[in-house]
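Case study B.
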Amino acid sequence: MSEYIEHDKAGVSVGLVEKKSYTFAEPPNEMILECGAKLGPITIAYETCGKLNDDKSNAVLICHALSGDSHVAGYYSEDDSKPGWWDIMVGPGKGIDTDKYFIICSNILGGCMGSTGPCTYHPKTVEPYGHNFPVVTIGDMVRAQKALLGHLGIKKILSVIGGSIGGMQVLEWSVRYPEMVVSAVPLATTTRHSALAIAFNEVARQAIMTDPNWNNGDYYAGPKPDIGLAVARMIGHITYLSDESMRLKFGRRLQDKSDFSFNFDADFQVESYLRYQGAKFVDRFDANSFLYITKAADYFDLEKQHGSGSTVKAFSKTGAKFLVVSFTSDWLYPTYQSKSMVKAMKKNGLDVSFCEIEAQWGHDAFLLPSERLTLLLRSFLESTYSENRKE
Amino acid sequence: MRFDLQIIASWIEKGSKVLDLGCGEGDLLYFLKQNKGVKCTGIERKESRVARCIEKGLSVLQGDINEEVFDFPDNTFDYVVLSQTLQQVYEPSELIESLLRIGKKGIVSFPNFSYWRVRLQLLLTGYAPITRQLPYEWYNTPNIRVITLKDFRKFSKEVGFKIVNEVAVNSHSYDRSGKIIKFLPDLYATYGIFLIGQDK
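Model:
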């Protein structure tokens, strides 16, 4: 996902929020990961907005994508320059209404924004884990979120919502903890990466791993693999856009010049944009986390993990109500991938709605202001909430 | 709500499961959900209409009815509704077959091509008829088939399904009111509504 974070145009915001953390799996009770390794203690950074109601029936869990974090909406301080990453959708009266719902968003396991990940200090060696951090999966991330929800005393989630890699967590939640998930909203996502998606991730990882500063993942004491991470981010950005959005946004326009420079500076606006996005990213993101999270996304395979190879069988494990949304120009997770999960949900007689939103902005469309998506989420949550109360 | 949809709604039992193929903005499903506690699903091709349905709290899938019917297990629904769409379907017998596979009953409505105004227009003017129910020129009509009430009865025998109930009505397609035609329906009805089931 890209960053489009800006202040709400109407000035509506949930206000000040606070990053909190929860630590569990203290040795000797470490969490046993899917890869077999033990990990503990585990800290999960999280934020909440809105109020949990008396019968705890209004909890909404938001799962972030590759480069997101727990800071989903609002501001940390009065003079904060930017709100959370989905502030356009989450707030009072917005698509995910903080006046009605209690919203939880946590940084994923393996991330670098406060949750345990490769840049966290290893409890035994007093050095960051680096390459000693075990490979985590989407399933492991979801299990860590489950522990957090247990800590918060939440037994039922009104809705789990997320796009992209966040959408994978949504799907994982729905089949792993069906008793907890009332409804699920996977946006612009897939039950398993295509070869195309894996290929882009691999090129991005190679960019990091071939940076001499990467040093097998142990770079925390010295220079960081900034160039590798910046290139990885540039590749990512290409996959988040679309032919159409790039044509409209950049075309072949030149950056601050009227003719070619006849050298290898950034001549085109698109080059300049990618360089800028890459350079900006290294200030806030850890290269190892990029490796671990993209690997987790590549490994994610709902049908293999939960359905012995069958998507239909995988979704037989859940009874959640679904709203599946795809975007016309998303070529990273094209509509056919959403449709195939919808098909499997239908075969299980699940209550599912599906909408393909016409959008030119590629995969990133799920993060951009969209009246349609806002309305869909608002009404889906409203009807789920009232149906759930009736039952 | 459209007059034919009012009749369709009256046929549907409380608390049943209904699929509406080509549900538009969900008028019928919303009515059924609110008034009869029906568990609703709709299929609609157009994004804006799908969104309107979801805004009304309905479960709707965006897609082509001819393809979407395949994924539902047998007897998923008590009723599958195909209102004023049959005349636009490319493979009617296949669709009817799917409809009766996934639903215990089907409800099909379509404009009656043997309505007297249609007959008279063709007879007197020699042009392809244009009526309030079929308001298109031959070159821009989405209605690729012309069906009469008699045709549908014959079709039921040939394809092998049972007509459980039928009502002939006279109404404008956007009219909220209309009347049931009992005298010479083949001639005086603008629409036919059929409740169909498997021929067993």
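The first helix of chain A runs from residue 138 to 151. The remaining cases will be described in the next quarterly update.
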